[in-house]
Predict the 3D structure of the following.
Amino acid sequence: MRVPPARVCFPAEDRAEILARIDEALTSGQLTLGAIGRELEAAFAKRHGARHAVAVSSGTSALEIILRAIGVEGREVIVPANTFFATAAAAAHAGARVVFVDCDPATMAFDLDDVASRIGPGTAAVIAVHIGGLISPAMPALVELCRDRGVEVVEDAAHAHGCALGGRHAGTFGRAGSFSFYPTKVMAGGEGGMIVTDDEAIVEAAQTFRDQGKGSFLANFHTRLGANWRMSEPHAAIVLSQLGRLDEFIAARQSLAKRYDAALDDLGLRPLHIPADAQCNYYKYVAFLPDGVDRARLKQTLRERFDVGLSGEVYDTPLHRQPVFEPFADRPLPGAEHIGDRHICLPLYPTLSEADADYVVESLAAALSEMGSL
């Protein structure tokens, strides 16, 4: 494919560095919960403006551990309907009843008014999801609302490495935040996740939960119902290398996003608006389609006629329409449904050339024209 939807970036010098670190772990024999993981935790916390970071096996486990640590079992956790399965699944696995709320088409994130209407005496937490790397401008208002109602805010920052709003980093608005290092993410670790928090009680609980609930690494004495949620040293080596490239990756994505922004007006597409005080990493470049455009046909035309692959939406099916969550779906959520139906994500990654980005725009224009939509 001439322009694939995504591509992982590991320059040759980074691969050599990663292999050297893995060799250190192999030589020492400490393949989990070792020095590389601790170095990563310290560096990640510093980069994201948090006092602490705890490395775990995935973004999903990071979120579940946070929810277990704050005690959501038997209570309600509010989840925006426009997010990945794992956001709600983490709450359900932590023993909570999931309450879905609608989303704001302008930000793709939670609808603040709907959140306010759904908070009740049984609400333990609200999960805010930073879709595509954008922290909603309503985030400070959400934090204030939840503080007034005695409810915790937890951030699903799986998309938001290096992102900020008003100078405040993703993961630091609420009690804790979770990040993912799945291969599609801005920082690709193969697998892995990270918890960031200023709360030492969360850190202590997370370190116990991730290691089968053991009170001590060296003792077979279990104090919590944990699981194998550890990050291996080889995975930590990969993520640590990617962290060193994070600012470079974000700068490249932002430059390409500006190029797309300048071109899309003529095509009738509307990019997701990024406020001036938001630092967005453009994990996804989101554009909303004009009414009447068949997204499936457009993607097929781009793929088959122009060899351009569009990446997956964020997201095409809101969670209240997912069969597995039917017990929690109690009403229509029109904002989330509109988001799911009307957007595409253009190819965007650090190794995408300007010429390739221009070709994507040219192909998009030709495909829309061919479909009679331009």
The chain has a mean pLDDT of 97.
